[in-house]
Amino acid sequence: MSSYSPSSVLLLLLVIFIFGGSSAEAAEAPLSSAAKEYLQAHNQARAAVGVEPLDWSETLANASSRVVRYQRNKMSCNFANLTNSRYGANQFWAGGGSSTPRMAVDKWVEEKKYYNHGNNTCAPNHTCGVYTQVVWRKSLHLGCAQATCTKDQTTIAICFYDPPEWWGHVVMVGDGAIY
Ligand SMILES: *[C@@H]1O[C@H](CO)[C@@H](O)[C@H](O)[C@H]1NC(C)=O
Ligand SMILES: *[C@@H]1O[C@H](CO)[C@@H](O)[C@H](O)[C@H]1NC(C)=O
Ligand SMILES: *[C@@H]1O[C@H](CO)[C@@H](O)[C@H](O)[C@H]1NC(C)=O
Ligand SMILES: *[C@@H]1O[C@H](CO)[C@@H](O)[C@H](O)[C@H]1NC(C)=O
């Protein structure tokens, strides 16, 4: 799943070739394959409802990386308490082996079926805030990270969004899990 295809390696080499010579620009690190997958999955969900794509933020990626490493090292890969997060946040927990960035985003987008775009409402007894953060029009930047607890074969993934989705005065944080 996460291996490079020959064409993406070629594209990467081409990008390095084109931008490698311009030393005046701060060298922007190429995105990891995981970052590309998070970004692409989000931007496909956004394009499907006519919302502009997000870009990748190293600041947000680093912040999410700090949280998932803490959850891995101290909290057995359980969901993080993101109540006081300054960023919008979605998190994903998976048991039973490997999981990919696309699996996390697909899980969040599952809520789409309960969301009604026409009148901005969610079906009774369901939540839609995880999905609506994925496609939140005012969010511009995305950064995600994941960590695996090898002992239990569990994975925690977190994406941060900036600017966040707001529910009244509260920053949206939500989660989804597959077992
Ligand atoms: C993100 O983390 C990397 C690795 O620790 C570091 O080199 C980089 O400067 C950080 N970037 C930002 C924007 O914090
Ligand atoms: C999460 O953190 C908030 C604020 O620090 C705290 O009030 C709340 O009790 C915590 N929730 C859980 C489930 O630990
Ligand atoms: C929103 O629209 C859906 C589908 O047209 C409808 O079933 C639902 O009752 C509406 N909700 C509100 C609060 O108007
Ligand atoms: C929502 O859940 C409540 C409590 O479980 C239940 O009484 C109600 O019938 C449910 N409503 C719908 C539309 O499913």
UniProtKB/TrEMBL annotation:
Protein name as catalogued: SCP domain-containing protein
Coiled-coil residue windows: none
Keywords recorded for this protein, A-Z: Signal
Database matches in Gene3D superfamilies: CAP
Boundaries of every SCP domain copy: 33-169
Species assigned in the record: Cannabis sativa
InterPro entries: CAP_dom, CAP_sf, CRISP-related
Signal sequence coordinates: 1-24
CDD domains hit by this protein: CAP_PR-1
